[in-house]
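Task: sequence in, structure out. Protein: P-loop containing nucleoside triphosphate hydrolase protein.
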Amino acid sequence: MMAQTKDPESFPVLSSFHSSPLQSLTFSSLSLTLPNLSTPILSPTHGHLAAGEILAILGPSGSGKTTLLNLLAQRPIPKSSVSTGSITLLPPPPNNTPYNAVSRLVEQEDALLGSLTVRETLHFSARLAGGFASKKQRSERVEHLIDAFGLRNQADTIVGTPVRRGLSGGQKRRLGVASQLITGPQVLFLDEPTSGLDAVAGWEVVNYLRKVARQEKLIVIASIHQPSSATFELFDKLLLMSRGKTHYFGPVDEVRRHYQELGVEVPLHVNTAEWLLGMVSTDFAEDKAAAEQRLEEESRIWEGSERGTRLKGLVDGITNGEKGKGGEKRPFEDGETEKKTPGVASVTMTLVHRSFVKSYRDVVVYGIRLAMYTGLAVMMGTVWLRLQPTQESIIPFTNSIFYGSAFLSFMAVAYCPAYLEDYMQFIKEKRNGLYGATEMIVSNFLIGTPYLFIFSVVFSSICYWLSNFQPTARAFFTWVFWLFLDLLAAEGLVVFMSSLVPSFVISLALVAFGNGLWMSLNGFMVPPDTLNVFYKYVFHYWDYQKYVFENMMINEFSERVYSCPTTETGCRCMWETDLADQCLIRGQGVLDQYGYKQGHMGRDVGIMVAIILGYRIAAWIVLMLKK
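Result:
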């Protein structure tokens, strides 16, 4: 016999989040077709659920379970597909509340931040959603969910990072469900919530969802694959599907009677769910054509049966009744919700707090980059060691300036995996209505800026003095400042490219290509005056490395002189300046070779700020357009 979960009755309830608890959810004629397929992925499907009920969507692989779940949760569908149907909530949420404000979807591969503990994950989810009367109520809810989902021994265990083990797959699954439940949905969708769990853990999860649905009048809809007998019996209703068509919708305990009416006797002492999957699957049938014909006939029988007809009439009555009142086919698109949610500033600071925890706990975020930059600084300082202000050092100084600025920005690619983890978390939480692109971009910029400044100071403190650049405090801090702007721009490029193409390999390649292009055009490889016209006017002037290299060169050479070797015939200076008769080279003579002039620092800083903000704004636009 399964263990009993702790009843939630003595704890803060989720229904307090909502002024108008739902009474029912009805979906009518939901379907999806692709133009290149002869048969629809999902044929018109109907269903009705009352508050407090929990529905299992059961069917073999390819039956349309996930498609239906995505349509019900109003998740993105293929661009070339055509969907029809309507979803009706009664009573309609007030003030044109967006659909994702009252619903949540727990995906099969739930995105979790690996550096957070179980307790922290739930706390941050609750803070982003809001709705709790006090911190005490929020903490009580967190602790209750930890107990209810069997995670008490793992409460202070991190989810797991690439360099530090954490939760098992089943524990992550339970945490993913709990992290959505704590946000206070009225409708909860789950894509195979028992996958990866053993029979006991799967039963506990579904049993707790059933109890919460009963107490708090939630509607729970879950696609499920091969549940145990005990778990299957916990569901109130069943939607049995095959090849995109409905074979049964109704109470779980009446499915046997339905098949008996078809003349099929359900064997005793077998897992009913497994037997049903066998009945609606053709994958292993010896005569596939006959099996497919049988399934078509069973689907038609269901549509014409008394239960199917009664369901269709109920669904049509509710749907048409709401349309008659002026309701829309898909009424929950935009608008404000009555639920008391945190403001933009509050959500942004919560994200900053969460990112800060991640940043110091997960070395992949900034730790590895700090080690890389420190190692690069030591290497650079010892290769270009104690360069003297002589003619022989001018080219090494120039090479060192290029190498330091260009490769530091190039190494920003190391931020790709950490940002992509944040991106996946953002997509999940945006779809669930917790926050949007503005909070994501602002919080990411705020948490990253101090670390990039630290990187700039650490790198400069090592290599600047070892290489013997202009030995003044003003010149040193000017170098740090430009290096800091360089890193800000480079990280902005990473954020933009990774948001545009959220694939680790592809975003890494795009960022590397972009930095390679900027390195080629920044003025070191080819002087600006001789640069190809196309590259000069299309790319050169918004190449952030150009402004960094130019101003670092001005910082080093504008106020410094370098000695020339002397011979019996006089001075041998490679750069002719007004100090040639003294066997000296004025640094401005070096700058003249590149066409660099002093007095434009303010303008260049403004351009750099525009480039930095431009990358962030571009990333913000991309995230705004993401579905």
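Residues 105-184 form one domain.
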